[in-house]
Design a protein that fits this description.
Elements: E1 11-15, H1 21-36, E2 46-48, H2 53-65, E3 73-76
Parallel strand pairs: 1-2, 1-3
C-alpha cells in the first residue's frame, strides 16, 4: 500500500465474513502491507460483515459510532 509510505497509518479495513477464505486472505494481505512498511495494522480497526448493502451500511455506521478516533483512510473489500 503506497498510502503507508505517506505516513497514513490510521487505516480501517471493512472486510467480509471472518470465516470466508477470501476474507482471511484479504486480511492477511492488508496486514502484510503494514509489515512491509515496518508498521503493524491495528486489529481494533478491522471490521467484518457480510458482502451486502445492508450489512455494509450497518458495519460502517457501528464503526463510526463506536470509535472516537476517525480513520485517515478506509479500505474496503467486495
Amino acid at each position: 500500500m503506497n498510502i503507508l509510505k505517506n505516513k497514513i497509518e490510521d487505516i480501517w479495513l471493512f472486510n467480509g465474513e471472518e470465516n470466508l477464505v477470501t476474507s482471511k486472505e484479504r486480511l492477511k494481505g492488508f496486514q502484510e502491507a503494514f509489515v512491509a512498511s515496518g508498521k503493524k495494522a491495528n486489529s481494533k480497526f478491522v471490521f467484518n460483515g457480510k458482502h451486502n448493502k445492508e450489512s455494509g451500511y450497518q458495519l460502517v455506521r457501528n464503526a463510526f459510532t463506536g470509535n472516537s478516533q476517525q480513520p485517515q483512510c478506509i479500505f474496503t473489500t467486495s
